Amino acid sequence: MDSVSNILGIDKVNMNGKLILIEEQHDSNANFLLNSVIFNALKNNYGICFVLFHNTINHYHNMGMKFGYNLTLLKEKDKITIIEPMKMIAYNMKYIYEPTKNCIINDVFIIIKNECEKMMQSNESVLIIMDDLNHIFNFGANLKEAISTLYSNTYL
């Protein structure tokens, strides 16, 4: 995995405060690229906050095992945290009378902020990985609100 990071130049970039956007086009797969970023973050003692709108943690765990890291063990060591907004929203649907896009987006942002603050107590820095940002649009958010959410997460 080091060789992929070297070739891509990921190992030469300080990721603190950076926004990395990885877009998959039809019939493409960015798993190797994302895993290079994850591997490099772990190598540099970063904590990782997974915000999973689409894939499950098992998906990332299985990929990680192929690339030489075990997310289950890393979770036990508080090196990663997992936020699954879709599960939280589905669980809370019976309590929502008038759902609003801003409320949902703000709630997710607050949870991300709180989890990252906890992780900063024991990690040098925290990398936030948001899986499939398109799901924010399912809540009625527009492009400006989605970018605002990304921008806000950059400065946690």
UniProtKB/TrEMBL annotation:
Pathway: tRNA modification; 5-methoxycarbonylmethyl-2-thiouridine-tRNA biosynthesis. Belongs to the ELP6 family. GO terms for cellular component: elongator holoenzyme complex. This is Elongator complex protein 6. GO terms for biological process: tRNA wobble uridine modification. It holds the Pfam family ELP6.
